[in-house]
Amino acid sequence: MNVQVNPAEMKIDFGGPYVMSIGGKLVGSNETFEVYNPATGGVVANAPAGTREQMEEAIAAAKAAQPAWAALSFKERGAYIEAYADALEANKEDIITLLTTEQGKPRHSMATVEVDAAIYWVREVAKRELKNEVIEDTEDHVVEVAHTPLGVVGAITPWNFPILLGLWKIAPCLLTGNTMVMKPSPYTPLGTLRFGEIAQQIFPEGVLNIVSGGNEQGQWMTEHPDISKISFTGSTATGKKVMASSASNLKRITLELGGNDPAILLPETDYEPLIPVLFDAAYGNAGQWCIATKRLYVHSSQQKQFVDAFVAYASTKTVGDGMDPNTDIGPIQNTMQYNKLRSLFADTKDKGYNIRLGGEIDESLDGNFVPITVVDNPPEDSRVVQEEPFGPILPIIAYDDVDDVIEKANDTEFGLAASVWGPDRDEAIEVGKQIEAGTVWVNEIHIHGIDIPFGGHKQSGMGVENGREGLEEFTNTKTYMFKK
Ligand code: NAD
């Protein structure tokens, strides 16, 4: 199977109106909603607000398309997905610009990294396959395990990494023989609508449908009897609603939820070279990252010097419009999140915690700009330590005893990821093994891979994305037994 793509022909018009993809057709809606540029407060565009009927049409189209799509082999579906990667590549520069415009992240750094990674993911996932496995083969009996498609998958995505997290779902879902209806966050629907439009040039009609609108669309999907699985990335609070509503027809669910990731610097760590790494880990994407480092524990013998050095480095960084090449950290994506941060900053100030950098939000600015903020050793029960801030604010906390800091790291409802840093690799690994989280990095951070499963423990989620396990979550396990 060879799905031919001529990149020049795959270029779509990014100046045109935003449309949904339903049953292979590009459709608008009588109702629209405004999407804002978080750096300016201005309107980027109007997006279609899909009606309930349009959601029904999208689900019906996905259902109708699924048997023929599932009848193709992994290789055949992979060829379509690889062609999709080529088509995305042909539109890459426009996708990056749009991502910065609607999401805020710097075009020259985070936005480019996100789109490059997303296209790479699509291209690589296309090459994977779930082969049947013979687990028993005796003289008179064979047992074979297969992975069959689930049917129609509903995908619901957040606003912090709309391109990457959307394509993380699309590629494995389609590869394994399912069809999809995707609903992006109402804060960042535009890039998703465009990559849906690009997809309509490649996939058979109904295989990938994109519907934009409000939160209620998520509910319509989770309660719909013709959807077999929900692949959800978003907050823990919404994840619980998704789980409850999905019970109606026992949908399979993958939930990628919030986190409050600790980083632990063990005693005598040579921290100077780590400061830029830890800065990016905490403040990249303006802290709006499920796996951002959100609590940094440093041994009390080093904590004071560490904070001085960290603040000196952080002071050189610039918050601004992501289209400006001098910007290191962009704005907060939406006013809901901006207001949550206003409340957290007010609490941090009112409680008299030691704010070593930033701390004052200038509300007279047009954009949702929040300063890079470092809080020196706030108490363990403070909001800035206990909550997922989802903004550019980091508590740096002193500890005396390693067992005690492990307990503190684990004393949270979340369990998404963590990092441990130390001069003795084996000791750091031993500490890492005791952290209750889906991913633990030792002396490195934020490594992801096509073949590396990623998911949260405790209330950070259920199931995984990526890796063989991530592919299997888009399938039913089916066991064949044959008498010879
Ligand atoms: P959110 O939960 O507010 O929204 C996520 C999506 O759910 C949106 O598309 C929204 O429209 C939809 N939604 C809202 N109500 C719904 C309902 N009742 N039923 C179904 N869908 C509904 O999350 P957000 O603010 O967009 O994203 C930020 C959160 O996402 C943070 O907590 C962050 O940690 C988490 N996140 C997790 C991961 C991960 O992989 N674990 C990755 C990125 C973000």
Secondary-structure-based class equals alpha/beta
- Tally of individual domains: 2
Distance between the termini: 34 Å
Architecture per CATH nomenclature, i.e. the level-2 architecture of the largest domain: 3-Layer(aba) Sandwich
Number of continuous helical runs: 15
Largest sheet report: 7 strands, mixed
Radius of gyration: 23 Å
Give the helix proportion (percent range). Answer: 25-40%
Strand arrangement within the widest β-sheet reads 14-15-16-13-12-18-19
| Unreliable residue stretches | none
CATH superfamily of the largest domain: Aldehyde Dehydrogenase, Chain A, domain 1
Description:
Keywords: Oxidoreductase. It comes from Hoeflea prorocentri. Belongs to the aldehyde dehydrogenase family. The chain is α/β, with parallel strands linked by helices. It has two domains: 7-257 and 459-483, 3-Layer(aba) Sandwich (Aldehyde Dehydrogenase, Chain A, domain 1); 261-450, Aldehyde Dehydrogenase, Chain A, domain 2. 36% of the residues lie in helices and 22% in strands. It has 15 helices and 22 strands. The strands form six sheets. It has a seven-stranded mixed beta sheet with strand order 14-15-16-13-12-18-19. A six-stranded mixed beta sheet has the order 9-8-7-10-11-21, with helices on both faces. The chain is globular. The site of nicotinamide-adenine-dinucleotide (NAD) has 30 residues, from helix 7 and helix 8.
